[in-house]
Amino acid sequence: MDRRVIAVLLAGTLRPPPLREALGRPIVCLPLGRSGTLLDAWLEALRSIDELAEIRVVLNGRPDVEAVNAAMSLAPWRPRRGKRSGPNVRCVAEPKAWRGPGGILRDVTDDLDGDDAVIIIEALRLPPLTLRPLVDAFTKAFDGVVGLVGRDQPGGIYVFRQRILQQASAIGYCDLKEQLVPTVSRGGAKITTAPLGEVGYTIRDRADYLSAVRASLAQPPGLDPPTRISGAAAVSSSALLEGFCVIEPDAVIGEGAVVHDSVVLSQAVIGGGAIVSRSVIGSSVAIAPHCRIVQKIVCEPRLTSAESAFAHRALAG
Fold first, then answer.
1. By Cβ atoms counted within 10 A, which residue in 112, 138, 139, 209 is the most buried?
2. Which domain does 78 fall in, by range?
3. Which distant-in-sequence residues (6+ apart) come within 8 Å of 165 by Cβ?
4. Nearest to 98 by CA among 27, 8, 169
5. In this predicted model, what pLDDT tens digit does every residue of 37-47 receive, in sequence order?
6. What is the pLDDT of residues 153-198, one digit of tens each?
7. Rounded distance, CA 135 to CA 48, Å?
8. Domain assignment present for 290
């Protein structure tokens, strides 16, 4: 790439997805893969782009910005070994409401030069194994590249020159795929495509999220068994973890409990003998002993921090 390169991660949506509404946590802050969160996975994917100068994470409002900043402070992204410094990562709220992806991109890149390259990522997706095909396809001959999954489906990842994004309307709603890209193509912009893999995973609800978790745990080199358990969790020796599972820090899995194809978030307590299958258990949620939870997002009842800590100490000894 011949000019400055930044990445814009679109991490908000016009309406909160069901998973965001239920858990009260930005989706990019949810655990994914062998370690870290969905946002960490995207930052890791962007490490392959040496030219990258800055990453802008765009969220719906200040509460989500604060939540993501807090999550990043617990697990800061570091540049690759051998690099003096990595790109600056900055979280920002959407400057204006009801602008759509195209309008948001115009607003958050209007300080750049026209030939600067903007990598656009719909961040509520599982990252592909590599972004290099997209970057390598973006030569001087083109104004933009659309990443594809499968044969011809947009993969939610693009790169455009800033001047292309500035053609979005300054006022009102503007979509990226259905309005801006067709408009600039008809206007003579040269846009090509790049393959990003066979399958794409968008994360909006429980089923989407669990599918993405399963796929992320299976990515090379993969985990065997495909289970991620925090060293700060307390899991009874008689508990059974089946299929793929993610158990976050300070979670408690009681005696004889079964967790199958599920995610248990921080400080949640799964009572002895309970069965949790294909479900997401929210932070600090208490699942009663011998309860059966199947294909649900559970957000209540919630324990206080002291109650969660007591359950953790009791099981951990």
1. 209
2. 5-195
3. 102, 105, 106, 109, 118, 180
4. 169
5. 999 999 999 98
6. 889 999 999 999 999 999 999 999 999 999 999 999 999 999 999 8
7. 10
8. yes
